[in-house]
Protein backbone atom coordinates (compact mmCIF):
# COMPACT_ATOMS: atom_id res chain seq x y z
CA UNK A 1 0.00 0.00 0.00
CA UNK A 2 1.29 3.49 -0.86
CA UNK A 3 1.43 6.29 1.71
CA UNK A 4 2.10 10.02 1.54
CA UNK A 5 3.27 12.13 4.46
CA UNK A 6 1.95 15.69 4.30
CA UNK A 7 3.16 18.58 6.46
CA UNK A 8 2.18 22.15 5.79
CA UNK A 9 0.35 25.37 6.52
CA UNK A 10 -1.98 27.83 4.86
CA UNK A 11 -3.08 31.32 5.88
CA UNK A 12 -6.81 31.70 6.47
CA UNK A 13 -8.67 35.02 6.72
CA UNK A 14 -9.81 35.52 10.31
CA UNK A 15 -13.15 36.83 9.07
CA UNK A 16 -13.63 33.58 7.06
CA UNK A 17 -12.70 31.15 9.84
CA UNK A 18 -16.24 29.73 10.07
CA UNK A 19 -16.18 29.03 6.31
CA UNK A 20 -12.76 27.38 6.60
CA UNK A 21 -14.05 25.14 9.38
CA UNK A 22 -17.11 24.24 7.28
CA UNK A 23 -14.87 23.30 4.33
CA UNK A 24 -12.86 20.93 6.51
CA UNK A 25 -15.95 19.52 8.22
CA UNK A 26 -17.54 18.79 4.83
CA UNK A 27 -15.24 15.76 4.52
CA UNK A 28 -18.13 13.43 3.62
CA UNK A 29 -19.03 15.29 0.43
CA UNK A 30 -15.35 15.76 -0.41
CA UNK A 31 -14.75 12.04 0.19
CA UNK A 32 -17.45 11.22 -2.33
CA UNK A 33 -15.90 13.58 -4.90
CA UNK A 34 -12.39 12.22 -4.20
CA UNK A 35 -13.59 8.62 -4.44
CA UNK A 36 -12.51 7.52 -0.96
CA UNK A 37 -14.46 6.18 2.00
CA UNK A 38 -16.21 8.57 4.36
CA UNK A 39 -14.68 6.93 7.45
CA UNK A 40 -11.19 7.43 6.04
CA UNK A 41 -11.98 11.06 5.22
CA UNK A 42 -13.28 11.62 8.77
CA UNK A 43 -10.07 10.13 10.16
CA UNK A 44 -7.90 12.39 8.00
CA UNK A 45 -9.87 15.45 9.14
CA UNK A 46 -8.08 15.14 12.48
CA UNK A 47 -4.81 16.08 10.75
CA UNK A 48 -6.07 19.66 10.38
CA UNK A 49 -5.51 22.26 13.10
CA UNK A 50 -6.96 25.77 12.80
CA UNK A 51 -5.77 28.74 14.79
CA UNK A 52 -8.91 30.12 16.40
CA UNK A 53 -7.65 33.55 17.42
CA UNK A 54 -6.24 35.83 14.74
CA UNK A 55 -2.89 37.49 15.07
CA UNK A 56 -2.86 40.72 13.02
CA UNK A 57 -5.86 39.68 10.93
CA UNK A 58 -4.90 36.18 9.88
CA UNK A 59 -5.12 32.67 11.22
CA UNK A 60 -3.14 29.66 10.10
CA UNK A 61 -4.38 26.22 9.16
CA UNK A 62 -1.87 23.42 9.68
CA UNK A 63 -2.01 19.90 8.29
CA UNK A 64 0.13 16.96 9.27
CA UNK A 65 -0.52 13.26 8.68
CA UNK A 66 0.60 10.16 6.90
CA UNK A 67 -2.25 9.23 4.61
CA UNK A 68 -3.00 6.58 2.03
CA UNK A 69 -1.88 8.02 -1.29
CA UNK A 70 -5.30 7.21 -2.75
CA UNK A 71 -6.71 9.86 -0.35
CA UNK A 72 -4.42 12.60 -1.66
CA UNK A 73 -7.21 14.11 -3.82
CA UNK A 74 -9.21 14.75 -0.63
CA UNK A 75 -6.46 16.81 1.02
CA UNK A 76 -5.70 18.57 -2.25
CA UNK A 77 -9.39 19.51 -2.62
CA UNK A 78 -9.42 20.88 0.93
CA UNK A 79 -6.25 22.90 0.38
CA UNK A 80 -7.64 24.26 -2.91
CA UNK A 81 -10.95 25.23 -1.29
CA UNK A 82 -9.19 26.98 1.59
CA UNK A 83 -6.85 28.76 -0.84
CA UNK A 84 -9.84 30.27 -2.62
CA UNK A 85 -11.11 32.04 0.49
CA UNK A 86 -10.43 35.65 -0.34
CA UNK A 87 -8.92 37.92 2.24
CA UNK A 88 -10.47 41.24 2.97
CA UNK A 89 -8.82 44.25 4.49
CA UNK A 90 -8.63 44.01 8.28
CA UNK A 91 -9.86 46.70 10.67
CA UNK A 92 -6.26 47.87 10.98
CA UNK A 93 -6.15 48.41 7.20
CA UNK A 94 -3.86 45.46 6.56
CA UNK A 95 -4.50 43.39 3.44
CA UNK A 96 -3.42 39.80 4.03
CA UNK A 97 -2.76 37.55 1.03
CA UNK A 98 -3.52 33.85 0.84
CA UNK A 99 -0.35 31.81 0.91
CA UNK A 100 0.96 28.52 2.20
CA UNK A 101 3.31 25.62 1.69
CA UNK A 102 2.87 21.85 1.92
CA UNK A 103 5.70 19.33 1.91
CA UNK A 104 4.77 15.85 0.60
CA UNK A 105 6.82 12.63 0.74
CA UNK A 106 5.34 9.73 -1.20
CA UNK A 107 6.34 6.09 -0.98
CA UNK A 108 4.76 4.08 -3.77
CA UNK A 109 5.87 0.45 -4.10
CA UNK A 110 9.44 1.27 -3.13
CA UNK A 111 9.55 4.40 -5.31
CA UNK A 112 9.95 7.67 -3.44
CA UNK A 113 8.78 11.08 -4.58
CA UNK A 114 9.25 14.42 -2.91
CA UNK A 115 6.65 16.99 -3.82
CA UNK A 116 5.61 20.46 -2.71
CA UNK A 117 2.42 22.47 -2.99
CA UNK A 118 2.91 26.22 -3.01
CA UNK A 119 -0.28 28.17 -2.31
CA UNK A 120 -0.39 31.65 -3.77
CA UNK A 121 -3.22 33.93 -4.88
CA UNK A 122 -5.91 31.25 -4.58
CA UNK A 123 -4.01 28.62 -6.56
CA UNK A 124 -2.12 25.49 -5.58
CA UNK A 125 1.08 25.12 -7.58
CA UNK A 126 2.57 21.60 -7.61
CA UNK A 127 6.31 21.12 -7.72
CA UNK A 128 8.79 18.27 -7.49
CA UNK A 129 11.46 18.69 -4.84
CA UNK A 130 14.94 17.25 -5.40
CA UNK A 131 16.21 14.49 -3.14
CA UNK A 132 18.60 15.81 -0.54
UniProtKB/TrEMBL annotation:
Domain of life: Bacteria
Protein name: Uncharacterized protein
Organism the protein comes from: Chitinivorax tropicus
Amino acid sequence: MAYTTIKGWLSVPANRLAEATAILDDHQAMADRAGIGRDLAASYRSGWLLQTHPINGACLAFYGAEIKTTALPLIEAQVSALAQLEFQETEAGVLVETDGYFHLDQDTQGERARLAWLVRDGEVLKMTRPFE
